[in-house]
């Protein structure tokens, strides 16, 4: 059996886990920054991200447990890899390119796999990961494989995939990708969406690793979403 | 519910103040006029069972219980309602959640520097005392978790929260605890409905051992480790299957302790035995160590501690040959911070702080993966090669077909009649040899380059040593400024002395108000005009100031200057009076303010610099892989593109 006090190279990737061994609650934000988001939508999205950070900061335990990664498309770019909520800095996103949603989902699944490996090799327990997709369009690339993997992941309880469509989104395709019914964002209420997301993640991060947490319903008349 | 009219159990009105916190079933408020109390008010009115439980708890309160918990002191009711709306308890806002203490990342930020391993041991022993006392009273905590135990950052005194969820025994009746957090729940209760079991102290003792483990093992959970088998091993499952990750028999548990963590071998045999019997043996039957056993062994260990010769913040069991914390921290982990010297306002030592700053090694420039090493390795992909080949065949085939057709058309008598068919043939050839267009490979290359540029920008931004150097420079500038503060004071005093004559003169002249003075041709109207322009006394009278006042020509200006000169003639410079104490005071006040500012900035310097350094190193680890892949992609895409040309 390897001695845990064997020399470890400096700056080894596990330092963050030794300093904070709390169980992790990983969440990937998969955000559409295609050209059609230009103007008010992207401005509201950016404001929403700032709110997200503020809300998470209010919960000392969630700050240590919730880990946020941010991927934008297109082109697909890992804006920030997984980091605990206290380190997450809301970026200022700009609109570019088309909507390679399929590739973005595959990228999300890939960094999620990497992260799970890091958790395992560092003896860190984790909650069912969340992937949170926000889009205002339809995929401009092949998405069938991504949809297959999302379904397999939900089936195996290895992830929870939420799709939120801004006005103009192709809800038929979203419904084919996600197992859960896609939600439609009312107006551009990104702020309310991110408050809900933060509250939900806080609740999950206080639950049991295996438990299903009843989430606040966002589709009430005063909620941010419609189905 | 509306909180306007609340009464305690003796019918006295209780007014609530600010909301302090909010949970799933209740919110906590300040109590007006009683800062030592808070009120916990349920969102929904309680049922008869809970009403009875809380009333019993209020009756059961004792000095001992109140010293270690936020025990209900008095029930609260709404007007005209017999069911309990909430209760009063002591204000524990000076205490902090225990997870902020045992987690190294939180501890270094939220707790004072004295929160070293001795403090952690002391807290563990106090937690054991609190549990033992509750059990002595015949009650069971039940819902042990990371947020129900609070610790004083000053004294390590422990207080238990959420007492209303405890399992209470009173008058032969048991009021159950209906909740629990699986991470602190023993194997025999995993996956059972909490409201259906009568809890025992032995159940609590599992949670107690987990909390003590957290405190001694830097926030690690005893059942979180590396699972050697296949599949997932969440903590709840590991508890249910009794897979103690630090067990002496890893063969059976198939679990290894996580990296960069101490093990049972770093503790006295006796403590290791307690953890083993709490986690690794059928503790349900045999009985787990109780609070009293823990107190004895933890206090014994506190008497056998040694301070590391290299780092005063490191304390460890003196039966070890070397410091386990040094070994772990050498890998870049930060577990203990020794701030004692820099945090006290009076004891600030610039040399010590600067030495600490310099002690943090630079992350260096970092090796950005180089493009060159990739270009040489890359061959165009088979798709690009096929595309290039097809394109060459196509050009050749089209030329051959075109020439043949032209020859036929020209030489054959009815050649032109066949032109239509030739067209068809050439079009079919074109289709047959259709291939990926060069533009597509060009686009792929541009996309790959775009991704690479993005990553390179992020590397510059997050992973190069530039931020570290800039931060170090900023701290160096501050340190130099701090060192020069005494020099700056001397310089200021010299300036004051040089200006002494001027100052004395100014102060002398300032005694002569224009309003009260007899100056030829300057009557009340003109005086008011002067005052409006800020010229109130003889010291204010200068040519440049007067020239700015409307209506004041040379004649009037000369009148005023003459007045001032007549006063100057009566001024006697007194070198013995020295610098005005008020001026000196102002200099000292300014410098003291700046001194405090710099001390605050520099005190945070070492930890901020260390954070930055670790962020940079972590970013490198993350970006390295992505960059290598992006470089590979670009090299490939460019090779494909040039193959196609």
Q: SSE order of chain A, as H and E?
A: HEHHEEHEHEHEHE
Q: Roughly what is the average pLDDT of chain B, rounded to an integer? A: 86
Can you tell me the overall shape of chain B? Answer: flat
Average pLDDT metric of chain A: 85
Low-pLDDT runs of chain B: 340-345
Q: State the domain count of chain A.
A: 1
Classify the beta-strand content of chain A into a percent band: 15-25%
- Tell me the count of domains of chain B: 3
- The CATH homologous superfamily of chain A: von Willebrand factor, type A domain
Q: State the secondary-structure class of chain B.
A: alpha+beta
β-strand percent of chain B reads: 5-15%
Number of helices of chain B: 25
**Cα distance, first to last residue of chain A?**
54 Å
Unreliable stretches of chain A (pLDDT < 50, length at least 5) are none
Q: Helical amount among residues of chain A, as a percent range?
A: 25-40%
End-to-end C-alpha gap of chain B: 76 Å
Q: What is the annotated CATH architecture of chain A?
A: 3-Layer(aba) Sandwich
Number of strands of chain B: 16
Q: How would you classify the helix and strand content of chain A by structural class?
A: alpha/beta
Task: Give your account of this protein's structure.
The complex is a heterodimer of chains A (227) and B (645). With 227 residues, chain A is an alpha/beta fold. Chain A has one domain: Rossmann fold (3-Layer(aba) Sandwich). Chain A has a 7-stranded mixed beta sheet with strand order 3-2-1-4-5-6-7. In chain A, strand 5, helix 6 and strand 6 form a beta-alpha-beta unit. Helix content of chain B is 52%, strand content 9%. Chain B contains 25 helices and 16 strands. With 645 residues, chain B is of the alpha+beta class. In chain B, the strands form 5 sheets. Chain B has a 7-stranded antiparallel beta sheet with strand order 2-1-6-7-5-4-3, with helices on one face. Chain B has a 3-stranded antiparallel beta sheet with strand order 8-9-10. Chain B has a two-stranded antiparallel ribbon with strand order 11-12. Chain B folds into 3 domains: 214 residues, Transferase(Phosphotransferase) domain 1 (Transferase(Phosphotransferase), domain 1), CATH 1.10.510; 239 residues, no CATH class; 65 residues. Chain B is flat and about 130 Å long. The interface between A and B is large, with 39 and 56 residues.
